[in-house]
């Protein structure tokens, strides 16, 4: 198998030069020209393919799909059977039961690195409630991947990619259940009740229990490094990029630094919130997430119902082209599957482990309770929101406004010869259905982007703390770098952002999935404990 060229080789072969042509470029173009070689190299490295039945399939997707399928089967379709239980946990039905049981039989947690058997202060059981933890995690996953990346998936893979996105979302619910349970089980809580959790901790501490001390430390450190990178890319730069694209498009802004200025505005607003930490982030996201969901889902449903007579045809296309795609689709049947699973993975992050960081902050003594809450994320994110976006775009393209499978640099070929990509395809679909609705979409895009940036700032900071320690100055350094990427993302092209962001999110799968496959029996124990508690209460 041909190895991807190293970044150094790519950089040397095509270095960004300061020639006369470059000097004429705008600020945004210069930033993009410098960033693209790294984005291309990183994408080719992480999405390295292995040949299966004559098709090259990215190894990371094989690991992701296989792991999700295994967890679904092993836990007896927990994603379906215990979906109602998860809803009840989020609603707070079992909160009093959990608190009472925790007092009778206190759980063992790490406090400043030391195991303690009894923690009587509820502040030491977490920082946020189940709904706030879900809202924070959902705000990290329900982002522009649901709007822009769905458009990219359909542009490349056609309507059939939607089918595989939905399947990936359903399977991903089981992976999310496992990683969120482990996130709570192996978290650290300091004497002030501040929580430090996520894959970094269950990889290091969980694998240490299994006797894999060095492997655990290595995987934890690798995950933390990649998570910091993912927070800069998919959780930040991609969000500001697509928000800026919408604002520029809607208001017809011009000027060589328009993107940078919009990115700077986002950075200032995000900086005001992230300084307050997870509690302030949770308070903002629990208000923003329901509002942005109602705004976007409401507009999508309005469009779908206004074209109800064509919905059957759109659904038929999704199923038909999932198995027999048009010849123009790159890679044919396998190519459609890859697009569906790749975009779903970017969107819901199941198997990547990122959301376990937010869920670790929940106030509970029963790890499996939050595992159940976590499985709702891929359903909300992919099965609901992504599917609505896909149907709106497919309805819009019934007459072939753009050509499926003909995508260059992240942009689809329109039937008039022009090209358009990402969120702007979705925007056209909205505007075509309801005049003026593209402004509603723009508002939703900005809210999606802002909430995702907030959540990922927390994910990245937790990983940064794991690597460099817990201090105010260390936190400040990360936050400054993070906010610089908010500006950078708004300045570079969609193609560069997609390459970097996709690869960064998917790279997390490698260390995380190894840990999940070694630690899943621990989840089984925690799940039985929690379900026994609920069953006992129901019997009484």
Can you walk through the features of this model?
The structure is a single chain. With 540 residues, the chain is mainly alpha-helical. The chain has a single domain (53-539), classed as Up-down Bundle (Amino acid/polyamine transporter I). It contains 24 helices and 9 strands. A 4-stranded mixed β-sheet has the order 4-3-5-6, with no helix packed on it. Strands 7-8-9 form a 3-stranded antiparallel β-sheet. Strand 3 (109-111) and strand 4 (114-116) form a beta hairpin. Helix 10 (160-185) packs across helix 11 (199-209) and helix 11 (199-209) packs across helix 24 (509-539). The protein is globular. Mean pLDDT is 79; it is low at 1-12, 14-24 and 106-123.
Question: What is the fold's blueprint, element by element?
Answer:
Layout: H1 7-13, H2 20-24, H3 27-46, E1 49-52, E2 55-58, H4 59-74, H5 78-81, H6 83-91, H7 95-104, E3 109-111, E4 114-116, H8 130-141, H9 148-157, H10 160-185, E5 188-189, E6 195-196, H11 199-209, H12 213-251, H13 258-274, H14 277-306, H15 308-323, H16 332-348, H17 355-359, H18 367-374, H19 376-396, E7 402-408, E8 411-414, E9 419-421, H20 423-433, H21 437-468, H22 472-491, H23 494-507, H24 509-539
Parallel strand pairs: 3-5
Antiparallel strand pairs: 1-2, 3-4, 5-6, 7-8, 8-9
């Amino acid at each position: 198998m041909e190895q991807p060229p190293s970044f150094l080789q790519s950089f040397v072969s095509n270095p960004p030069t300061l020639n006369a042509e470059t000097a004429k470029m705008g600020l945004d173009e210069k930033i993009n020209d410098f960033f693209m070689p790294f984005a291309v190299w990183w994408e080719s490295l992480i999405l390295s393919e292995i040949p299966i039945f004559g098709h090259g399939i990215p190894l990371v997707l094989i690991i992701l799909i296989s792991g999700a399928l295994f967890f679904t089967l092993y836990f007896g379709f927990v994603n379906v059977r215990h979906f109602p239980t998860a809803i009840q946990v989020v609603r707070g039905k079992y909160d009093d039961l959990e608190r009472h049981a925790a007092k009778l039989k206190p759980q063992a947690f790490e406090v400043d690195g030391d195991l303690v058997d009894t923690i009587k202060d509820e502040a030491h059981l977490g920082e946020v409630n189940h709904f706030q933890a879900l809202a924070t995690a959902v705000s990290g996953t329900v982002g522009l991947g649901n709007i822009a990346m769905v458009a990219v998936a359909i542009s490349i893979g056609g309507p059939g990619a939607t089918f595989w996105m939905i399947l990936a979302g359903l399977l991903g619910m089981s992976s999310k259940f496992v990683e969120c349970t482990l996130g709570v089980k192996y978290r650290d809580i300091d004497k002030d009740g501040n929580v430090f959790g996520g894959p970094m901790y269950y990889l290091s501490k969980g694998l240490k229990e299994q006797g894999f001390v060095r492997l655990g430390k290595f995987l934890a450190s690798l995950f933390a490094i990649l998570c910091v990178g993912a927070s800069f890319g998919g959780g930040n730069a991609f969000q500001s990029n697509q928000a800026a694209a919408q604002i520029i498009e809607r208001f017809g802004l011009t000027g060589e630094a328009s993107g940078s200025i919009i990115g700077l505005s986002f950075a200032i607003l995000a900086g005001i919130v992230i300084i307050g930490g997870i509690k302030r982030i949770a308070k903002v996201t629990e208000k923003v997430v329901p509002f942005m969901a109602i705004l976007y889902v409401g507009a999508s449903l309005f469009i779908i119902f206004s074209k109800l007579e064509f919905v059957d045809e759109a659904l038929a296309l999704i199923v038909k082209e999932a198995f027999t795609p048009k010849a123009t689709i790159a890679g044919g049947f396998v190519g459609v599957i890859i697009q569906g699973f790749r975009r779903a993975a970017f969107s819901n992050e199941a198997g990547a482990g990122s959301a376990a960081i937010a869920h670790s902050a929940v106030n509970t003594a029963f790890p499996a309770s939050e595992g159940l809450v976590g499985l709702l994320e891929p359903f909300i994110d992919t099965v609901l929101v992504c599917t609505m976006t896909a149907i709106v775009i497919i309805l819009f393209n019934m007459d072939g406004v753009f050509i499926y499978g003909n995508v260059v640099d992240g942009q689809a070929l329109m039937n008039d010869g022009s090209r358009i990509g990402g969120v702007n395809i979705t925007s056209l679909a909205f505007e075509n259905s309801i005049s003026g609705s593209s402004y509603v979409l723009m508002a939703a895009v900005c809210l999606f982007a802002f909430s995702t940036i907030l959540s990922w700032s927390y994910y990245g900071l937790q990983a940064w703390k794991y690597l460099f320690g817990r201090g105010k100055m260390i936190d400040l350094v990360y936050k400054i770098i993070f906010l610089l990427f908010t500006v950078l993302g708004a300045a570079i092209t969609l193609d560069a952002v997609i390459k970097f962001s996709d690869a960064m999110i998917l790279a997390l799968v490698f260390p995380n999935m190894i840990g999940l496959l070694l630690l899943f029996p621990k989840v089984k124990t925690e799940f039985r404990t929690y379900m026994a508690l609920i069953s006992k209460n129901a019997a009484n």
